[in-house]
Amino acid sequence: MYELPKLPYAYDAFEPFIDAKTMEIHHTKHHATYVAKLNEALANYSEFKDKPIRDLLIGLQNAPDALKTPIRNHGGGHFNHSMFWELMKPQGGGAATGELAKAVVKTFGTFEKFQEEFTKAAAGVFGSGWAWLATGENNALKIIQTANQDNPISSGLKPVLGIDVWEHAYYLKYQNKRLDYISAWWNVVNWAKAEENYKMALK
Fold it and tell me: How many helices (H) and strands (E) does the chain have?
C-alpha cells in the first residue's frame, strides 16, 4: 500500500517564500488524502496495489474502468506531490545547471526566457492544475500544463520540473495572487533534483 512520504525538511524551511502553515496543511491533509483515497480504491485489486505509482499512471488506460478515475486523480495527486516536495529545498533557487541548463538554453534561448515562459504557463492554468517542464519526442524539452492531478507521464512524457498551482498550494499566504506565489517559488527550486530527473528522462 502507498504511504505519505516524509519531507526532508521542516514545514517552515521555505519561509518567507512559502509559509509553514501552508506546507503543513498541503502535506498532512491534501497529500495524505490522495494517498488514503488511492489505497481505498485499490483495496480489492491486489494486482494493482503493489505496483509503483509511476507504473500505475503509465498504464492508466489499461486499468479496469472502476480504477481509471481513482488512479488518475488520487494516484496522480500522490505522484505529483511526491515529486513536488523533492523539487524544492531550503536555500534553493538560482538557475538550472549541468546538462539540463544546456538543454534549456538550446530549447528556449536563455534560462531567463525559459523562466518567463514557464511562469506564464503556470499563471495561465485555468482553475486547478500544474505546469511542467518535461521531455517528449526525441527527448526535446517542452513546457506543458495539466489539469487537476494529471501528470505528463500518462501522456507519454517525462516530467523534469513541476509546480503545483492549486489554490491550496498558496492561498493562505498569497490569496488570489498566484503570480506572486510562482515568483516566490523560484527561490526554493531544487535544481540538482531537476537535473537528476532530466538525466533519468534521457535513459
Answer: 11, 3
